[in-house]
Amino acid sequence: MNLSKMYLSVLLSISFTLGSFPVYGSAESNNTVEESNSQENYTYLLKSPKQTKEVLEKMKNQYPSLNATAIEEIGLIYVENSKNIDVNKIENKIIEYIDVKGELPDLISPYEDTVTPNKILNEVKQSILNESKEPNQFDTNIAFPSLNSETFTPFNWYLKDVTSDYKNLSIDTGDRSTIALIDSGVDIEHPLIKENIDLTLAKNYVTNDMDITDELGHGTTIAGIMSSIAPETTIVPYKVVGNAGGESVWVIDAIIDAANNDNGVISVSVGTYFIKSEKEDKLLIKAYERAVRYAKNKGAVVIASAGNDGFDLDELKKIKYKHLPGGLHDVITVSSNTKHNNLAYYSNFGKEVDFSAPGGSLFDDNGFTDTTEMIITTFPTDQLNTPLDQSLGIPQGYTLTEGTSYAVPQVSATAALIISEYTERTGDKPSVNEVLKYLDRGSSDIGKRGRDSYFGEGKVNAYSSLMMINK
Question: Does domain 118-470 match CATH 3.30.565.10?
Fold first, then answer.
Protein backbone atom coordinates (compact mmCIF):
# COMPACT_ATOMS: atom_id res chain seq x y z
CA MET A 1 0.00 0.00 0.00
CA ASN A 2 3.07 2.28 0.19
CA LEU A 3 3.53 4.72 -2.65
CA SER A 4 6.69 6.12 -4.11
CA LYS A 5 8.67 8.57 -2.04
CA MET A 6 8.39 10.77 -5.10
CA TYR A 7 5.08 12.11 -3.81
CA LEU A 8 6.61 13.67 -0.72
CA SER A 9 9.51 15.05 -2.76
CA VAL A 10 7.05 16.73 -5.08
CA LEU A 11 5.10 18.17 -2.15
CA LEU A 12 8.11 19.60 -0.39
CA SER A 13 9.70 20.96 -3.56
CA ILE A 14 6.77 23.29 -4.28
CA SER A 15 8.45 26.68 -4.17
CA PHE A 16 7.17 29.67 -2.28
CA THR A 17 7.00 32.78 -4.43
CA LEU A 18 5.53 36.17 -3.72
CA GLY A 19 3.38 36.00 -6.81
CA SER A 20 1.67 32.76 -5.81
CA PHE A 21 1.31 33.41 -2.09
CA PRO A 22 -2.20 34.25 -0.86
CA VAL A 23 -2.37 37.94 0.01
CA TYR A 24 -5.21 39.18 2.17
CA GLY A 25 -6.01 42.79 3.05
CA SER A 26 -2.83 44.17 1.52
CA ALA A 27 -4.10 46.47 -1.20
CA GLU A 28 -3.50 50.17 -0.69
CA SER A 29 -6.65 52.26 -1.18
CA ASN A 30 -6.72 55.80 -2.53
CA ASN A 31 -8.78 58.59 -1.01
CA THR A 32 -11.44 58.73 -3.69
CA VAL A 33 -14.91 57.66 -2.64
CA GLU A 34 -15.26 55.36 -5.63
CA GLU A 35 -12.08 53.40 -4.89
CA SER A 36 -12.67 53.40 -1.14
CA ASN A 37 -16.07 51.86 -1.69
CA SER A 38 -14.42 48.88 -3.42
CA GLN A 39 -13.27 47.74 0.01
CA GLU A 40 -15.15 44.97 1.77
CA ASN A 41 -15.04 46.75 5.11
CA TYR A 42 -13.69 49.82 6.84
CA THR A 43 -12.09 49.21 10.20
CA TYR A 44 -10.79 51.76 12.65
CA LEU A 45 -8.66 51.05 15.69
CA LEU A 46 -8.91 54.02 18.01
CA LYS A 47 -6.14 55.57 20.07
CA SER A 48 -8.11 54.82 23.23
CA PRO A 49 -10.82 52.17 23.76
CA LYS A 50 -12.53 54.67 26.07
CA GLN A 51 -13.39 56.75 23.01
CA THR A 52 -15.34 53.97 21.26
CA LYS A 53 -18.85 55.02 22.22
CA GLU A 54 -18.17 58.67 21.46
CA VAL A 55 -16.72 57.91 18.02
CA LEU A 56 -19.51 55.48 17.14
CA GLU A 57 -22.08 58.11 18.06
CA LYS A 58 -20.38 60.65 15.76
CA MET A 59 -20.44 58.12 12.92
CA LYS A 60 -24.10 57.27 13.49
CA ASN A 61 -25.02 60.94 13.51
CA GLN A 62 -23.45 61.27 10.06
CA TYR A 63 -25.09 58.07 8.76
CA PRO A 64 -27.93 56.78 11.00
CA SER A 65 -28.26 53.58 8.95
CA LEU A 66 -24.57 52.75 9.31
CA ASN A 67 -23.97 49.02 9.86
CA ALA A 68 -21.14 49.09 12.37
CA THR A 69 -19.76 46.68 14.96
CA ALA A 70 -17.94 48.17 17.93
CA ILE A 71 -15.60 46.15 20.15
CA GLU A 72 -15.34 48.61 22.99
CA GLU A 73 -12.77 46.64 25.01
CA ILE A 74 -10.06 47.24 22.40
CA GLY A 75 -11.40 50.37 20.66
CA LEU A 76 -12.23 48.73 17.33
CA ILE A 77 -15.05 49.86 15.01
CA TYR A 78 -15.86 47.66 12.03
CA VAL A 79 -18.07 49.10 9.27
CA GLU A 80 -19.53 46.92 6.53
CA ASN A 81 -19.17 48.35 3.05
CA SER A 82 -21.99 50.33 1.51
CA LYS A 83 -21.74 52.36 -1.69
CA ASN A 84 -24.18 54.82 -0.21
CA ILE A 85 -21.64 55.87 2.40
CA ASP A 86 -19.03 58.53 1.79
CA VAL A 87 -16.24 57.14 3.95
CA ASN A 88 -14.17 60.30 3.61
CA LYS A 89 -16.88 62.34 5.32
CA ILE A 90 -16.99 59.86 8.18
CA GLU A 91 -13.22 59.84 8.58
CA ASN A 92 -13.02 63.62 8.56
CA LYS A 93 -15.29 63.60 11.61
CA ILE A 94 -13.23 61.07 13.57
CA ILE A 95 -9.67 61.41 12.21
CA GLU A 96 -8.29 62.73 15.51
CA TYR A 97 -9.40 59.55 17.30
CA ILE A 98 -7.93 57.01 14.83
CA ASP A 99 -4.75 55.10 15.60
CA VAL A 100 -4.74 52.85 12.50
CA LYS A 101 -7.33 52.10 9.83
CA GLY A 102 -7.76 49.72 6.91
CA GLU A 103 -9.53 46.59 5.74
CA LEU A 104 -9.44 43.44 7.85
CA PRO A 105 -8.75 40.25 5.82
CA ASP A 106 -10.92 37.17 5.63
CA LEU A 107 -9.86 33.99 7.38
CA ILE A 108 -8.25 31.12 5.55
CA SER A 109 -10.62 28.16 5.57
CA PRO A 110 -9.43 25.53 8.07
CA TYR A 111 -9.16 23.07 5.18
CA GLU A 112 -7.33 25.36 2.74
CA ASP A 113 -4.06 26.21 4.47
CA THR A 114 -2.18 23.14 3.32
CA VAL A 115 1.43 22.76 2.23
CA THR A 116 0.29 21.03 -0.94
CA PRO A 117 -2.14 21.94 -3.67
CA ASN A 118 -5.24 19.86 -2.98
CA LYS A 119 -4.86 18.18 -6.36
CA ILE A 120 -1.56 16.55 -5.41
CA LEU A 121 -2.67 15.48 -1.95
CA ASN A 122 -5.91 14.10 -3.37
CA GLU A 123 -3.94 12.09 -5.93
CA VAL A 124 -2.00 10.48 -3.11
CA LYS A 125 -5.20 9.67 -1.22
CA GLN A 126 -6.82 8.34 -4.39
CA SER A 127 -3.86 6.01 -4.94
CA ILE A 128 -4.42 4.63 -1.46
CA LEU A 129 -8.08 4.09 -2.26
CA ASN A 130 -7.22 2.34 -5.50
CA GLU A 131 -4.84 -0.03 -3.73
CA SER A 132 -7.26 -0.83 -0.92
CA LYS A 133 -8.88 -4.15 -1.73
CA GLU A 134 -11.33 -4.56 1.13
CA PRO A 135 -12.44 -2.17 3.85
CA ASN A 136 -10.80 -2.89 7.19
CA GLN A 137 -14.06 -2.74 9.12
CA PHE A 138 -13.83 -1.92 12.82
CA ASP A 139 -15.47 -4.21 15.31
CA THR A 140 -17.59 -1.80 17.37
CA ASN A 141 -19.60 -3.38 20.16
CA ILE A 142 -21.11 -0.01 21.03
CA ALA A 143 -22.48 2.61 18.67
CA PHE A 144 -19.93 5.32 19.45
CA PRO A 145 -16.75 3.97 21.08
CA SER A 146 -14.47 6.54 22.70
CA LEU A 147 -11.44 7.73 20.76
CA ASN A 148 -9.11 6.19 23.32
CA SER A 149 -10.67 2.72 23.06
CA GLU A 150 -8.82 -0.21 21.50
CA THR A 151 -11.38 -0.05 18.70
CA PHE A 152 -9.44 2.77 17.08
CA THR A 153 -5.95 1.36 17.41
CA PRO A 154 -3.64 2.27 15.63
CA PHE A 155 -5.05 5.73 14.89
CA ASN A 156 -5.34 6.93 18.50
CA TRP A 157 -1.60 6.70 19.14
CA TYR A 158 -1.41 10.48 19.63
CA LEU A 159 -3.77 10.41 22.61
CA LYS A 160 -1.69 7.73 24.32
CA ASP A 161 1.40 9.80 23.59
CA VAL A 162 0.33 13.12 25.12
CA THR A 163 -1.36 11.53 28.14
CA SER A 164 1.23 8.82 28.94
CA ASP A 165 -1.36 6.15 28.16
CA TYR A 166 -4.18 8.15 29.83
CA LYS A 167 -2.48 8.34 33.23
CA ASN A 168 -3.60 11.96 33.47
CA LEU A 169 -7.16 10.76 34.04
CA SER A 170 -6.17 9.31 37.40
CA ILE A 171 -5.16 12.82 38.52
CA ASP A 172 -7.61 15.24 36.91
CA THR A 173 -10.33 15.18 34.25
CA GLY A 174 -10.75 18.94 33.80
CA ASP A 175 -14.03 19.44 35.65
CA ARG A 176 -12.94 22.82 37.04
CA SER A 177 -11.97 24.36 33.71
CA THR A 178 -13.59 25.80 30.57
CA ILE A 179 -12.27 25.99 27.01
CA ALA A 180 -13.54 28.50 24.45
CA LEU A 181 -13.58 26.78 21.05
CA ILE A 182 -13.20 29.48 18.38
CA ASP A 183 -13.83 27.55 15.18
CA SER A 184 -16.58 26.40 12.80
CA GLY A 185 -19.09 25.41 15.46
CA VAL A 186 -19.69 21.89 16.75
CA ASP A 187 -22.02 18.90 16.44
CA ILE A 188 -23.91 19.27 19.72
CA GLU A 189 -25.54 15.85 19.27
CA HIS A 190 -22.33 13.87 18.93
CA PRO A 191 -22.39 11.27 21.74
CA LEU A 192 -18.69 11.74 22.57
CA ILE A 193 -18.78 15.48 23.06
CA LYS A 194 -22.38 16.56 23.77
CA GLU A 195 -21.90 16.32 27.54
CA ASN A 196 -18.97 18.74 27.32
CA ILE A 197 -20.75 21.43 25.31
CA ASP A 198 -22.18 24.46 27.12
CA LEU A 199 -24.47 26.51 24.89
CA THR A 200 -25.31 29.12 27.53
CA LEU A 201 -22.62 31.50 26.30
CA ALA A 202 -22.12 30.04 22.82
CA LYS A 203 -22.30 32.48 19.93
CA ASN A 204 -22.54 32.42 16.14
CA TYR A 205 -20.75 35.39 14.54
CA VAL A 206 -21.47 34.17 11.02
CA THR A 207 -25.25 34.60 11.09
CA ASN A 208 -25.72 36.38 14.43
CA ASP A 209 -27.99 33.74 15.90
CA MET A 210 -27.62 30.93 18.42
CA ASP A 211 -27.16 28.15 15.86
CA ILE A 212 -23.59 26.84 16.22
CA THR A 213 -24.11 23.85 13.88
CA ASP A 214 -20.79 22.74 12.42
CA GLU A 215 -21.20 22.93 8.65
CA LEU A 216 -17.53 22.16 7.91
CA GLY A 217 -16.80 19.50 10.52
CA HIS A 218 -13.61 21.19 11.68
CA GLY A 219 -14.81 22.40 15.07
CA THR A 220 -16.20 18.95 15.86
CA THR A 221 -12.83 17.35 15.18
CA ILE A 222 -11.19 19.79 17.59
CA ALA A 223 -13.80 19.25 20.32
CA GLY A 224 -13.37 15.48 20.14
CA ILE A 225 -9.66 15.73 20.90
CA MET A 226 -10.26 18.10 23.81
CA SER A 227 -12.91 15.89 25.39
CA SER A 228 -10.73 12.78 25.03
CA ILE A 229 -7.84 14.34 26.97
CA ALA A 230 -9.94 16.34 29.46
CA PRO A 231 -13.26 14.42 29.49
CA GLU A 232 -14.98 16.64 32.07
CA THR A 233 -13.87 20.05 30.85
CA THR A 234 -16.55 22.41 29.57
CA ILE A 235 -16.36 23.51 25.93
CA VAL A 236 -18.04 26.75 24.83
CA PRO A 237 -18.33 27.08 21.01
CA TYR A 238 -17.81 30.42 19.28
CA LYS A 239 -18.61 29.94 15.60
CA VAL A 240 -16.49 32.18 13.33
CA VAL A 241 -16.39 30.07 10.15
CA GLY A 242 -19.27 28.87 7.98
CA ASN A 243 -19.69 27.46 4.49
CA ALA A 244 -18.85 30.85 3.00
CA GLY A 245 -15.75 31.33 5.15
CA GLY A 246 -15.09 33.70 8.03
CA GLU A 247 -13.73 37.11 8.92
CA SER A 248 -10.84 38.17 11.14
CA VAL A 249 -13.06 40.59 13.05
CA TRP A 250 -15.20 37.66 14.18
CA VAL A 251 -12.17 35.94 15.71
CA ILE A 252 -11.12 39.15 17.43
CA ASP A 253 -14.65 39.66 18.75
CA ALA A 254 -14.83 36.03 19.89
CA ILE A 255 -11.55 36.32 21.80
CA ILE A 256 -12.95 39.31 23.69
CA ASP A 257 -16.26 37.56 24.38
CA ALA A 258 -14.50 34.37 25.49
CA ALA A 259 -12.35 36.34 27.92
CA ASN A 260 -15.36 38.23 29.29
CA ASN A 261 -17.15 34.91 29.75
CA ASP A 262 -14.36 33.73 32.06
CA ASN A 263 -13.04 30.90 29.89
CA GLY A 264 -9.69 29.76 31.24
CA VAL A 265 -8.46 28.61 27.83
CA ILE A 266 -9.15 30.14 24.41
CA SER A 267 -8.40 27.68 21.60
CA VAL A 268 -7.98 29.02 18.04
CA SER A 269 -7.28 26.69 15.10
CA VAL A 270 -8.04 29.25 12.37
CA GLY A 271 -6.00 32.15 11.04
CA THR A 272 -4.68 34.12 8.09
CA TYR A 273 -1.52 35.53 6.51
CA PHE A 274 -0.76 39.16 5.76
CA ILE A 275 1.92 41.66 4.69
CA LYS A 276 2.77 43.50 7.86
CA SER A 277 4.23 46.55 6.10
CA GLU A 278 0.85 47.55 4.69
CA LYS A 279 -1.59 49.67 6.66
CA GLU A 280 -4.30 46.99 6.72
CA ASP A 281 -1.91 44.54 8.24
CA LYS A 282 -0.70 46.98 10.86
CA LEU A 283 -4.36 47.27 11.77
CA LEU A 284 -4.72 43.49 12.03
CA ILE A 285 -1.59 43.11 14.15
CA LYS A 286 -2.62 45.81 16.59
CA ALA A 287 -6.20 44.56 16.79
CA TYR A 288 -5.10 40.99 17.54
CA GLU A 289 -2.47 42.20 20.01
CA ARG A 290 -5.01 44.23 21.92
CA ALA A 291 -7.50 41.37 21.96
CA VAL A 292 -4.97 38.81 23.15
CA ARG A 293 -3.55 41.19 25.76
CA TYR A 294 -7.08 41.84 26.99
CA ALA A 295 -7.69 38.11 27.28
CA LYS A 296 -4.44 37.60 29.18
CA ASN A 297 -5.32 40.38 31.59
CA LYS A 298 -8.62 38.60 32.20
CA GLY A 299 -6.68 35.41 33.05
CA ALA A 300 -7.28 33.47 29.81
CA VAL A 301 -4.61 31.40 28.06
CA VAL A 302 -4.81 31.89 24.28
CA ILE A 303 -3.54 28.96 22.18
CA ALA A 304 -3.28 28.98 18.37
CA SER A 305 -1.76 26.99 15.51
CA ALA A 306 1.50 27.76 13.72
CA GLY A 307 -0.14 27.03 10.35
CA ASN A 308 -0.09 24.22 7.79
CA ASP A 309 2.06 25.45 4.91
CA GLY A 310 5.50 24.10 5.79
CA PHE A 311 6.91 27.63 6.02
CA ASP A 312 9.82 28.91 8.05
CA LEU A 313 8.02 31.76 9.78
CA ASP A 314 11.31 33.53 10.44
CA GLU A 315 12.01 33.62 6.71
CA LEU A 316 8.48 34.89 6.02
CA LYS A 317 9.16 37.88 8.25
CA LYS A 318 12.03 38.92 6.00
CA ILE A 319 9.59 39.47 3.14
CA LYS A 320 7.03 41.07 5.44
CA TYR A 321 4.69 38.08 5.78
CA LYS A 322 3.29 36.82 9.04
CA HIS A 323 0.74 34.26 10.24
CA LEU A 324 -1.89 35.24 12.81
CA PRO A 325 -3.02 34.90 15.51
CA GLY A 326 -0.36 32.27 16.19
CA GLY A 327 3.02 33.90 16.67
CA LEU A 328 1.87 36.84 18.75
CA HIS A 329 3.76 37.49 21.96
CA ASP A 330 0.90 36.58 24.32
CA VAL A 331 -0.30 33.56 22.29
CA ILE A 332 0.92 29.99 22.82
CA THR A 333 1.83 28.93 19.27
CA VAL A 334 1.73 25.21 18.45
CA SER A 335 3.51 23.23 15.74
CA SER A 336 2.88 19.62 14.79
CA ASN A 337 5.18 16.63 15.27
CA THR A 338 4.90 13.12 13.83
CA LYS A 339 4.50 9.79 15.57
CA HIS A 340 8.29 9.53 15.65
CA ASN A 341 8.84 13.02 17.06
CA ASN A 342 9.92 14.74 13.86
CA LEU A 343 8.39 17.91 12.48
CA ALA A 344 5.33 17.11 10.37
CA TYR A 345 5.89 17.88 6.68
CA TYR A 346 3.11 20.50 6.61
CA SER A 347 3.87 22.28 9.89
CA ASN A 348 5.08 25.88 9.93
CA PHE A 349 8.00 26.47 12.27
CA GLY A 350 10.11 29.30 13.65
CA LYS A 351 11.18 31.11 16.80
CA GLU A 352 7.56 31.94 17.56
CA VAL A 353 6.66 28.26 18.16
CA ASP A 354 6.16 27.57 21.88
CA PHE A 355 5.14 23.90 21.97
CA SER A 356 4.31 21.01 19.69
CA ALA A 357 1.86 18.12 19.77
CA PRO A 358 1.30 15.18 17.40
CA GLY A 359 -0.96 16.33 14.58
CA GLY A 360 -0.83 13.25 12.37
CA SER A 361 0.63 12.82 8.89
CA LEU A 362 -0.35 11.03 5.71
CA PHE A 363 3.33 10.20 5.25
CA ASP A 364 5.84 8.40 7.44
CA ASP A 365 9.23 9.97 8.12
CA ASN A 366 10.72 8.25 5.07
CA GLY A 367 8.22 9.88 2.74
CA PHE A 368 6.01 6.84 2.13
CA THR A 369 2.27 7.03 2.61
CA ASP A 370 1.12 5.36 5.80
CA THR A 371 -2.39 5.99 7.09
CA THR A 372 -1.44 4.75 10.57
CA GLU A 373 0.59 7.94 10.93
CA MET A 374 -2.70 9.90 10.78
CA ILE A 375 -4.88 10.56 13.81
CA ILE A 376 -8.54 9.78 14.45
CA THR A 377 -11.04 12.16 15.95
CA THR A 378 -14.75 12.93 15.97
CA PHE A 379 -16.72 14.19 12.98
CA PRO A 380 -20.33 15.40 12.65
CA THR A 381 -22.68 12.42 12.82
CA ASP A 382 -24.93 13.86 10.14
CA GLN A 383 -22.13 14.24 7.58
CA LEU A 384 -20.35 11.59 5.54
CA ASN A 385 -16.69 11.29 6.40
CA THR A 386 -14.05 11.18 3.66
CA PRO A 387 -13.68 8.48 0.98
CA LEU A 388 -10.38 7.55 2.66
CA ASP A 389 -12.19 7.05 5.97
CA GLN A 390 -14.83 4.93 4.29
CA SER A 391 -12.26 2.78 2.48
CA LEU A 392 -10.60 1.98 5.80
CA GLY A 393 -13.90 1.25 7.52
CA ILE A 394 -13.82 4.32 9.76
CA PRO A 395 -17.45 4.61 10.94
CA GLN A 396 -19.56 7.69 10.46
CA GLY A 397 -19.01 10.17 13.26
CA TYR A 398 -15.21 9.82 13.04
CA THR A 399 -12.47 10.84 10.63
CA LEU A 400 -8.74 10.50 10.02
CA THR A 401 -6.89 13.78 9.71
CA GLU A 402 -3.64 15.74 9.95
CA GLY A 403 -2.66 19.33 10.71
CA THR A 404 -1.47 21.81 13.31
CA SER A 405 -5.17 22.50 13.93
CA TYR A 406 -5.30 19.17 15.75
CA ALA A 407 -2.14 19.79 17.76
CA VAL A 408 -3.75 22.91 19.27
CA PRO A 409 -6.59 21.14 21.18
CA GLN A 410 -4.05 18.80 22.77
CA VAL A 411 -2.26 21.80 24.25
CA SER A 412 -5.59 23.47 25.08
CA ALA A 413 -6.86 20.39 26.91
CA THR A 414 -3.58 20.07 28.80
CA ALA A 415 -3.83 23.71 29.84
CA ALA A 416 -7.41 23.08 31.00
CA LEU A 417 -6.25 20.14 33.11
CA ILE A 418 -3.52 22.28 34.67
CA ILE A 419 -6.08 24.97 35.55
CA SER A 420 -8.45 22.39 37.00
CA GLU A 421 -5.84 20.62 39.12
CA TYR A 422 -4.19 23.82 40.32
CA THR A 423 -7.59 25.23 41.31
CA GLU A 424 -8.44 22.10 43.27
CA ARG A 425 -5.14 22.10 45.14
CA THR A 426 -4.83 25.80 45.91
CA GLY A 427 -8.38 27.12 45.76
CA ASP A 428 -7.24 29.77 43.27
CA LYS A 429 -7.12 29.86 39.51
CA PRO A 430 -3.54 29.88 38.16
CA SER A 431 -2.22 32.88 36.27
CA VAL A 432 -1.41 32.61 32.58
CA ASN A 433 2.29 32.50 33.42
CA GLU A 434 1.74 29.67 35.89
CA VAL A 435 -0.09 27.63 33.25
CA LEU A 436 2.83 28.24 30.88
CA LYS A 437 5.24 27.13 33.56
CA TYR A 438 3.55 23.76 34.03
CA LEU A 439 3.15 23.23 30.29
CA ASP A 440 6.89 23.83 29.97
CA ARG A 441 7.92 21.64 32.91
CA GLY A 442 5.79 18.75 31.67
CA SER A 443 6.88 18.91 28.03
CA SER A 444 9.32 16.50 26.38
CA ASP A 445 12.38 17.96 24.66
CA ILE A 446 12.21 16.22 21.27
CA GLY A 447 14.30 18.53 19.09
CA LYS A 448 17.63 20.17 19.65
CA ARG A 449 18.47 20.46 23.31
CA GLY A 450 16.49 23.28 24.84
CA ARG A 451 14.07 25.51 23.01
CA ASP A 452 14.16 25.23 19.22
CA SER A 453 12.31 26.54 16.17
CA TYR A 454 10.56 23.25 15.39
CA PHE A 455 9.04 22.29 18.73
CA GLY A 456 9.54 25.31 20.98
CA GLU A 457 9.91 24.16 24.57
CA GLY A 458 8.92 20.63 23.53
CA LYS A 459 6.02 18.23 23.03
CA VAL A 460 3.22 18.64 25.56
CA ASN A 461 2.35 15.87 28.00
CA ALA A 462 -0.77 16.20 30.14
CA TYR A 463 0.26 13.62 32.73
CA SER A 464 3.74 15.07 33.25
CA SER A 465 2.38 18.59 33.60
CA LEU A 466 -0.14 17.47 36.22
CA MET A 467 2.61 15.64 38.11
CA MET A 468 4.61 18.87 38.24
CA ILE A 469 1.75 20.56 40.09
CA ASN A 470 1.83 17.78 42.65
CA LYS A 471 5.47 18.35 43.48
Answer: no
